[in-house]
Amino acid sequence: MSDFIVSVLCFVLTLLVYYVNKRLYTRWRTLILMPLVMTPMVLVVMLLITHITWKDYIADSHWLIWLLGPATLAFAVPVYENMAIIKRHWMSLTAGVITATLVAVCTSVWLARLFTLPVEIQRSLAVRSITTPFALAAAKPVGGQPDLVALFVVLTGVFGMAMGDFLFLRIAIKQGMAKGAGLGAASHGAGTARAYQIGPQEGVVSSLVMMLAGVVTVLAAPIIGHVMWTLKS
């Protein structure tokens, strides 16, 4: 079987697994059946069993990664439709985004150093709390590895989505905007999807915070790399 046929079959298989997974998740909303969790697991197992290389798999599936950009920008539509909420709370949202970005970057890097993880993992972890298109853009000036960055972003999103409700309950956060901001800042796209399940206002705030946090991190990435590693050395 030629490499072209293998890559096309992988592309079709990816869409099929995702479609079936989404139908299952619609019926049984459990963490393990989340498409963000189950679909990659199934695909990885299939690739290991069939001994298909990553190069062959991604050959005709790479444009699915490109679609992350338009998908992220689509969150701007409900944000635009709810500008009144944003104008009313712009100061608290701005402060929250800046604080969340600083905390996410600093705690990720410092914890990685505490556990003496390699520098490339430290650099990749620095941008884990923003959605994938922004994280990949920020990874280059920071010095992170794209594959590691993508993995850490997914893990962060899944963990944040799974633990969000528990943490809100434990620290008695009941205000909808606070929940949306927390999910958007800490677990990007996955958290925003969960925020829309909670309510429209939560989803709008989460979308806005997710995008702003991504923009701030990308713009600050050269400074982050300089302060965290260049000055340190």
UniProtKB/TrEMBL annotation:
Is the keyword Membrane in the record? yes
- Compartment(s) of residence: Membrane
Among the Pfam families in the record, one is LrgB
Q: Which UniProt keywords apply?
A: Membrane, Transmembrane, Transmembrane helix
**How does the record say this protein sits in the membrane?**
Multi-pass membrane protein
Q: Chief location of this protein? A: membrane
Presence of keyword Transmembrane helix: yes
Transmembrane segments annotated in the record for this chain: 6-21, 33-51, 63-80, 92-112, 148-169, 204-229
Top-level taxon of origin: Bacteria
Q: What is this protein called?
A: LrgB family protein
Upper lineage is:
Bacteria, Pseudomonadati, Pseudomonadota, Gammaproteobacteria, Enterobacterales
